[in-house]
## 1
Amino acid sequence: MAITAFPFDNQDTTEDQYSKLFRELQDSGVVGSATGTDCKVTADGSGMRVFIQPGSTYLRGVMGISDAVETRTIQPASAAIRVDRVVWRMDPAANTATIAVIQGSPGGGVPALTRTSSGVWEEPLGRITINPGDTSVSLTAVTDDRRFIGGRVRAWSSTLRPDTPRASDLGYNLSTGKWEFWDGSAWGNPAFLAAPPLPMVEKVDPDTTSITATSWSNVSSMPLLTLTLPMPALVQVEYSAWMAINAGASGDLRAGVSHNGAAPQDLFGGTWGDVLFLSAPADGGFSQQHSMASTMVLPAGDHTFRPRAYRSGSRGSTLSYQRLRVRALRWEDPRFLVMPR
């Protein structure tokens, strides 16, 4: 393996080396504003042809410039819908850059671009949809396919803004102390998304509640809690209670949290959540503090939670000092620049 570096004085630099250098400085694309007409493909219904407006396109370090409207012929309609593509095509082996039409396959969708590391490179300008029986290309048959080169992020004052800004130009205004961008007609301030507060609902009941049900039933002293999520979130459910079983015949006591009406053992599809369990021997009562905490990503919407419990056997059973807390730990939405944790 050899190590090479370029450019230096008195050293030949190849076309391929030049391209490799400059493709790291700027992405390929149309030079101009996204709201402008540079290299835009149009049609007027006058025949099987399209027109490409003047403009420049940067192609892997090569600049292709068209200083007049170009006309390209579209082949006759096929038996099925066909999509053709107008592109700038750069061919380093032929030392050419020109505007060409890629003819699609009938019923085959949008044709692929040729993009090789050191060979032919195609940059899209427009898509042409040709229906069976078409004898001309209308403007509605043309879909803008242009991609634009990026701009530099700079700083300026209100009186020294760029004279000829392009749509999406971004900079820091030293006069206002704010970021601003050009939307094609005016300067505006970007509205960066701020994550909304993370919701939480909680209920604490220090009183003692008798459990007489023999199947999963709502705990009467604990109300239904509703957690509203505007977007998907990682949610944690915490539940604790002092569980007691009186002396007498053997038996046990179970308590858990219901989500959207599901029984606790089926909490969130049975993928998480522990059921609090207390078992007492026949020769005496038993009491103990129990707690559980579980997490799951939940979708946007209203989610309801409520403790449920039941006993087996005939002995008296109670729950005391119950605490249910449901809270979102973080938003599962990639749009936010800062995600609360």
## 2
Amino acid sequence: MARRPLTRKWNPLIHKKVKDYLKAAKVRSRLSRSLIPNGLTMPDPNAIVIGGAKKMDAAILFFDLESFTKISATLSTEQTLALLNFVIPSVMHVVRHWGGFFEKNTGDGVMAILGTETKDRSIIAQEAIECAMAIRYVTENEVQPMLASVGLPHINFRVGIDLGEVLIGRIGIHSHNFLSVVGTIANLACKLQGLARSNGICIGDSLVRCLNPYLQIHAELGEHPDWAWQYTHTGQAYNYYHFNLDWPEPLEWFRRGFINQPTF
């Protein structure tokens, strides 16, 4: 049986989880600055064994807030913190729902690893694009309206994703270490995020080739003078694409059940 282009992971449960988080975050954002304690030291992270790495196929996703430096310059530090606490955890909830892991938080964005539980690139690609679509939906339909309701400015975002072989390992010293992704695909995903349109998803050729044909038709070829990547062995241009498909309202999608050709 052919694998369907999209799954039922997009559903009212993850939508509700993000909405519930945002409601709680809205209450917390009302706390006065006096409740934020001063501190001199960073919390000690759990000690883990350091060394070694795992080679695998995975999708790397970068999420970033557009023009964050410029916008945050117009806000107080408390407002900036409140804005980040609405946006970033909402994205993290979505990534977790799709089984993703976080390589790092960049302050105004995240880098995530998706598809680490399978070697099937078509499944990795599907999970990555579904996750990106869900990030776009909850950010546009839940996070941005919530920001407006508490008097915070509208802020756009960009998502970049690619798929390929990476090394994932722990780097650092005892009690101060981090998960790191090494590979060309991670570099490409970061650059793709920078090429994405406002509130857009930008994806690499490797990921597009692994998508279901129904999803491939929603990938619009991108062009930029600074993009000159090529396949190493062939010298053929390594293209990038703007992905233009959106999830419908989650309950509507859930009611449709499993279908071979979803209509949006």
## 3
Amino acid sequence: MEIFLRHGYERVSLEDLEEICRVPHGTLTTKYNSKQQLAAAAIDWYYSKYSQRMKSAMEQQTDICSAVKAALYAFIEFNYTQGEVSKDHYVRSIIDISRIDTELNQEFERLQHDWELSFIGKFEQYRDQLSDPSKAEGLAQFYLTTIEGLYEVIKSKPPRPMVFGVADLSLDVVKANLKQSPEH
């Protein structure tokens, strides 16, 4: 995936990947019939790694506010780390690459849907901490939208503290919906 991010998805062929990775000619083409097939496998691996990092960050928390903060911070760190392959300009992310091709986009949407269900499930798990438990799914949707917004902000490469500040401000929404305010 990193090679696609560094060199550009459209510009890299399977043969280029073999050369860059220093594997024998034909190694990738025996396993993958096309660059799209390889990219779909890479997106699946990369997105699984990304979603596992966010899930793990959330699972270590005992309250919804801390869980959301951990997920937002993990998302920010992951995206900044991914973007560090180039300091001069924004580099395409797996999201951008997945939108180039219909097959890749379908795979990405499947993975994203699975992550969103997991995220919504976390809010359902903590619904008893909310002053109005019926708002759990709405709050989850709010934070899924917040994550999309953070992604767009990160693409413009602002200083990390500013993005973390935006994430912290968004936590006021969950705090306002708690039975009691957490001690943070």
